[in-house]
Design goal:
The protein has about 60 residues and is mainly alpha-helical. The chain is built from three helices and no strands.
Length: about 60
């Protein structure tokens, strides 16, 4: 799926596909790390029940 998505975006060279794949993977990992730290801090300050409910609601609204 990843390779076909990049090809649809016009990236066809194998080395560019590898670069784009590594970049997208790294961006995903950094985003998950930042999100985990952010929601973890909010969970400690506000309360875990509310903080764990908010992402579920956001995800549910996104996929209606």
């Amino acid at each position: 799926m990843r390779i076909s998505s990049f090809k649809d975006l016009g990236i066809t060279d194998p080395s560019e596909l590898m670069q784009a794949g590594v970049l997208s993977y790294n961006a995903q990992m950094i985003g998950m790390m930042i999100g985990g730290i952010f929601w973890g801090i909010l969970g400690d300050k506000i309360g875990r029940y509310i903080i764990l409910t908010v992402p579920i609601v956001i995800y549910s609204l996104e996929h209606c």
